[in-house]
Write a structure and sequence with these properties.
Elements: H1 3-11, E1 15-19, H2 29-39, E2 43-47, E3 53-54, E4 57-58, E5 72-75, H3 82-92, E6 96-99, H4 110-118, E7 122-125, H5 138-150
Parallel strand pairs: 1-2, 1-5, 5-6, 6-7
Antiparallel strand pairs: 3-4
Helix pairs in contact: 3-4
């Protein structure tokens, strides 16, 4: 499916976990994604096994620890942690996964992408939720076509 359709499906979810949200937000893409989704009215849960709170929000060590579960997850950790997150998401029945990526490798793990897709998940392997739909802003809208040219944002998933 085309990236725009996959992004719309992802952003139609209302309960979203974001991994890699840090107590020190400067320079962390996960924090920007988390904050914007909160601002846009999503019910968002920071996942960080080393923090009890992120700002004024309770943090959770794992996806399974979120009361009531989530429908989708943004992976914002290093790529070597992505497979474990996707495996946990599969166990929990989460079908929407977005591996954040900007200019560098971001959180994309080919093994995690393959695992997720083999288990029936829609895995967006690059880009940022802030480039699409109601979560978007001007900067991210401008960056999206540029990063599509470099391959950092997939055209299809």
């Amino acid at each position: 499916m085309k990236i725009k359709e996959a992004a719309e499906q992802f952003l139609a979810c209302k309960r979203i976990a974001v991994t890699g949200v840090s107590r020190e937000p400067a320079g962390h893409g996960s924090n920007a994604v988390f904050d914007r989704l909160v601002q846009r009215g999503y019910e968002v849960f920071p996942i960080n096994p080393n923090a009890e709170t992120i700002g004024e929000h309770q943090s959770f060590p794992t996806l399974a620890a979120v009361p009531g579960g989530v429908e989708a997850v943004v992976i914002g950790t290093r790529p070597e942690h992505a497979l474990g997150t996707v495996e946990e998401a599969a166990e929990l029945g989460i079908k929407q996964v977005w591996m954040h990526r900007s200019m560098d490798a971001g959180s994309v793990s080919p093994a995690a992408v393959a695992f997720g897709r083999e288990h029936g998940m829609t895995v967006i392997d690059g880009g940022c939720p802030l480039m699409f739909g109601q979560a978007a802003d001007g900067f991210h809208k401008v960056m999206c076509p540029i990063l599509k040219l470099t391959g950092a944002v997939p055209r299809t998933v």
